[in-house]
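Data availability (excerpt). All sequences and predicted token strings are deposited with the supplementary files. A representative entry, Large ribosomal subunit protein bL25, is shown inline so that the format can be inspected without opening the archive.
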Amino acid sequence: MSAVKTLEAVARDRVGKGAARAVRRQGHVPAVIYGGGQAPQSIAVDLIRIRTLIYAGGFKTTLFEINAGGKKTRAIPRDFHLDPVTGVPIHVDFLRVVAGQSVTVEVPVHFLNEDAAPGIKQKGGTLNVVSHTLALEVAPDAIPDAIEIDLTGREIGDAIHITDVKLPAGATFTGEPDATVANIVPPTVLGAEVEAEEAAIAEAQSAEAAEEKAEEEAAEEAAEDEKKED
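Structure token line:
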């Protein structure tokens, strides 16, 4: 379970594009806390701090205690927006959490003991991951860091379904009840797909190169014609 992290913030009185730009010029990121049956609260958080948290991973599964002007609010990140060019955070949405409330979060899946899976270690099979995260409905203070799946003894052809996965107490999977999380496939299955994809890419690159060469030759011919006319 992730520990509750403290996040210092500044309350914002002004909202809108102009106010948001002013906040960013001061080295902060505009954000809002909503939900919990209360009015939305506009805040600003430190750019360096929030950027570090986002890029460290697990941001959307972390419960924060946000301190804005002495008012502390427990909330979980619901969404964030990055500048498409620089990758710098430009806005964050937090969902306010209250006692007795559950939230839906995407929790990463970690696969353990591949070396102890005969289908992978001895027979050259490949772990084909269908779902890298699982959508769980869980209490905010019981969000797991990850769901761990032990591959010990797994053979080629084995499929791991959500029913095979041990979820934390009180957590509920929100997807299809018989969803496949991963399976172990023969070494040729994914290999053939990769080879076909690589061949398609090479063919496309070759066609693009031929087209560029034809354009260059046409341009050179046009230039020679212009010289002759001169």
